[in-house]
Design goal:
Blueprint lengths: L9 H13 L1 H13 L3 H14 L13 H11 L3 H14 L4 H14 L2 H23 L13 H11 L4 H34 L4
Helix pairs in contact: 1-2, 2-3, 2-4, 3-4, 4-5, 4-6, 5-6, 6-7, 6-9, 7-8, 7-9, 8-9
């Protein structure tokens, strides 16, 4: 099987090279970046390697998404629905409350023809993302960094309220899943910048 590793930019190849020393975290982060920048084939390679090392790995940052969730999403995005379903079901066996795993399992099922169960899983995932953002936003110290304009939560509620059109429902759900994943990194950067600003006043 031909892989896409030769298409990685130089900085990503360097990241992969050191990831064995740094643990699976960097590989997962590189896989997430590949998903966020429209390179799901690259993401599959990175996330498969990470999952082989630690299938129970979860992001160490306020959310519960794990490596199997992202690998399942990557399989979904390259059209490998059987692999996506198996991987996402494994993710939920490890953590039944992972909202992105529910969301992408639902998208996979809906595309595979099981629209009824797929919609239930998508709805569970969207509600889980909404609840996660509400819970984090309640943190009076750093919660305001997360979905500060409530755009994601508003989109979730609009989507759940008007899910009569199956195509629009799944398209909106997929977009919300991507936005939520990107929000994790945005909020993390904002928190880090704030901490740096609070601690660097004398420089």
């Amino acid at each position: 099987m031909k892989t896409k590793t030769l298409l990685f930019p130089g900085w990503l190849l360097a990241l992969i090279a050191v990831s064995g020393c740094a643990g699976v975290g960097q590989q997962v982060q590189a896989g997430r970046l590949a998903l966020q920048t429209g390179r799901p084939n690259d993401a599959v390679v990175l996330l498969m390697q990470a999952a082989e090392q630690d299938p129970g790995y979860q992001l160490p940052y306020r959310v519960r998404e794990g490596v199997l969730t992202y690998l399942g999403r990557a399989y979904y995005e390259i059209g490998k629905d059987a692999e996506a379903r198996i991987t996402l079901e494994k993710a939920l066996a490890k953590d039944k409350d992972d909202p992105l795993a529910h969301l992408y399992l639902g998208l996979t099922l809906a595309r595979s023809g099981d629209r009824e169960r797929g919609n239930r899983e998508i709805e569970t995932g969207l509600k889980g993302i909404d609840e996660t953002l509400e819970y984090i936003a309640a943190d009076t110290q750093y919660g305001f960094h997360w979905d500060p304009a409530m755009n994601i939560r508003r989109d979730i509620r609009i989507t759940l309220a008007g899910k009569t059109n199956p195509e629009e429902f799944t398209a909106s759900a997929q977009r919300i899943g991507a936005l939520f994943d990107e929000e994790i990194d945005k909020a993390r950067r904002d928190e880090a910048n704030r901490r740096g600003g609070e601690g660097g006043g004398g420089n």
